[in-house]
Amino acid sequence: MASTIALARTDAEIAACYPVMAQLRPHIAADAFVPRVRRQMGQGYELAVLSADGRPAAVAGFRVLEFLFSGMTLYVDDLVTDSTNRSKGYGKDLLSWLKQEAVGRGCVSLQLDSGVQRYDAHRFYLTQRMRISSHHFALDLPDK
Prior knowledge:
The protein is α+β, with helices and mostly antiparallel strands. It has a single domain (3-127), classed as Aminopeptidase. 33% of the residues lie in helices and 28% in strands. The protein is built from 4 helices and 5 strands, in the order βααβββαβα. The chain has helices at 11-21, 30-41, 90-104, 119-127, and strands spanning 3-7, 46-52, 55-67, 71-81, 109-112. The protein has a 5-stranded mixed β-sheet with strand order 1-2-3-4-5, sandwiched between helices. A hairpin with a 2-residue loop joins β2 and β3. The longest helix has 15 residues, at 90-104.
């Protein structure tokens, strides 16, 4: 099955990614998705989509940042394969594309965080030669 990977740039291309992204980010309402992605794009966020048979099968949100601890880094905010398309190699293909994109943009590191409950994702990342390099801590702040 042939697949292609491209950046989602138009509102229609971004909106087409929502059904897949919602599997990872169910707290984002469909009508809020495109405006939120557009706001994040103003902060360097990009949305890559792997399409199979003309439909999004996997998506990845990412940005290039420079950190003191890692230098130029392609940071993956979101990486998800549609549940009906798992085990077809799409996640591996999209992660490979992200690695090539990172190198092409002068990055020396590709990084992501993954929720502690996402065991299948962790197994996938480890098989892709990624390593667990740190613990991520979070603090929810009160609303203003």
